[in-house]
Design goal:
6-stranded mixed sheet, Heat Shock Protein 90, alpha+beta, Methyltransferase, Cobalt-precorrin-4 Transmethylase, Domain 2
Length: about 475
């Protein structure tokens, strides 16, 4: 236990300011010991956390009397975790003269899932609940197969002749150019595959199929990329679509070509230069990072899944079959986090080719690239068993196509100075036809980036409102409208 009382009290105060959440819970006393242990079980099954006994729900540290019996009760309760869990316990004396007991847990890779009194629990926001049986069983399977994964299982019926030799050596040369493969690999294809860890005991592994397979892809439907450009904001109307089945590096190239074809290249005239300066809508390196992540992290054991690239007028989405790796949440991807690889063999080959780092900071680099490019950082979601990344960018608007600043448009912009509803904006124009207002005014203004949704991830939300952007303020000001 840390004997520095002042430091402990300072740390406690910092925790109390955070308030209860996914990794922090308050209990008034060890009279709620059973409920507290259930929460610790949930922390063990997620990203770790801290439980504080002696804290009121309003975050007041009233403490409790801590006797030897109190500590024995806690120790006995900790014995009811399966598998055995390592938890740290600290006691902090507070102003009341009593003590707060802090119990903290950290994630141990491949150690879960955990149960308390034979039941598994999970954390959802600031709530602890029993983990669904199907999810618990899946977690058990992941633990049991931490060394036996889909990617390192032998590919039944696949031989050397089913491997694209040219593709293998293309990646080998890329790895050498990056300095990630310095020792000789030989000229024999089996030896090269052994060196890349995609062949074991003279048998081709499934990872080799994903990376270098040829000709037999109908037997591997999960090696598929589905791409579509939709007109508008939903999937009602296709402008273009393409499905490709093949090895991972070829899928990456197909996705990049599709993006180049459908993402506009806005340009502007820079003073002192004769030519205009073109800037990609999404930084190419950021887009590539997200596509690579989708390819190396997806759940290949799901033969019915695929990688999905969907381009709408107002956003670009990348879907990858399979949830985020155990212990990783969408929120963690926007801050420093550890890299948890679902397919380490596949990821290692991508790393050797120079397409990823292995330090879990890829999403952080994407966020920084977007910031430097002056666009919103992507949003990360887990939806219906898939990992989803969304870039909110005005795909449907080029640098040369912008709404006309008519009196009606000026009235809409003026109304949007403060958050207002669809009906309020429509009323500002005096138009009676809802669809006509949507198509001729609202959608163009959204795509031009003059106004924005307050709930961008849920365009059809009943609570949706709209507000003026900084670009819209400049337009309104130049049109002679009163700015806020």
């Amino acid at each position: 236990m840390n004997t520095n009382a002042a430091a402990n009290l300072k740390q406690l105060s910092a925790l109390l300011r955070q308030g209860e959440g996914p990794a922090l819970e308050f209990k008034r006393s060890t009279g709620e010991l059973k409920e507290g242990m259930q929460t610790l079980c949930a922390f063990l099954n997620s990203s770790g956390g801290t439980l504080l006994f002696g804290i009121r729900p309003d975050a007041t540290a009233e403490g409790q009397d801590v006797s030897d019996q109190t500590l024995r009760d806690i120790a006995q309760a900790l014995d009811r975790f399966e598998p055995p869990a390592h938890l740290s316990i600290e006691r902090v004396k507070v102003k009341t003269g009593r003590e707060v007991v802090a119990v903290s847990v950290e994630i141990v890779p491949d150690a879960g899932p955990f149960t308390y009194e034979s039941r598994p629990y999970e954390r959802v926001g600031s709530t602890t609940r029993k983990m669904p049986q199907a999810k618990y069983e899946r977690r058990l399977l992941e633990r049991a197969h931490s060394k036996r994964r889909w990617e390192n299982e032998p590919a039944e019926g696949v031989s050397i002749k089913d491997i694209d030799r040219a593709e293998v050596y293309r990646i080998v040369e890329a790895a050498r150019a990056k300095g990630h493969l310095t020792e000789p690999v030989g000229s024999r294809l089996p030896g090269v595959l052994d060196r890349l860890d995609v062949r074991k005991d003279d048998r081709i592994l499934q990872a080799a199929v994903v990376l270098f397979g040829k000709g037999f892809m109908p037997d591997y439907p999960q090696c598929e990329l589905r791409m579509a450009r939709f007109r508008g904001l939903d999937k009602t109307e296709f402008m273009d679509q393409k499905n490709v089945r093949g090895p991972a590096f070829k899928l990456l190239e197909e996705a990049e070509v599709f993006c180049q074809r459908h993402l506009p290249l806005p340009g502007k005239i820079v003073p002192g230069k004769l030519q205009r300066e073109d800037r990609p809508l999404i930084p190419p390196d950021a887009m590539r990072e997200i596509l690579v992540n989708a390819l190396i992290h997806r759940d290949y054991s799901n033969a019915g899944g695929a990688i999905y690239l969907a381009i709408f007028d107002d956003r670009v989405e990348v879907w990858s079959t399979g949830t985020f790796p155990t212990g990783t949440t969408p929120e963690m991807l926007s801050r420093e986090h550890k890299s948890i690889l679902r397919n380490p063999i596949i990821a290692d080959v991508f790393h050797r080719a120079g397409l990823i780092e292995k330090w879990g900071c890829g999403t952080n680099r994407v966020i920084e690239m977007c910031r430097k490019a002056g666009i919103r950082a992507p949003q990360f979601h887990e939806i219906a068993g898939s990992a989803v990344v969304k870039f909110h960018v005005p795909v449907g608007v080029t640098g040369q196509v912008t709404p006309q600043v008519t009196p009606q448009v000026t009235r809409v912009l003026g109304a949007a100075r403060s958050d207002c509803s669809f009906a309020d904006l429509q009323a500002a124009t005096g138009l009676k036809d809802r669809v006509h207002f949507l198509k001729t005014h609202l959608e163009p203004l959204l795509l031009a980036g003059w106004i924005e949704r307050t709930i961008p991830d849920k365009p059809r939300s009943s609570k949706q409102k709209y507000r003026l952007t900084e670009k819209g303020r400049r337009v309104l000001g130049s049109a002679g409208g009163q700015d806020a």
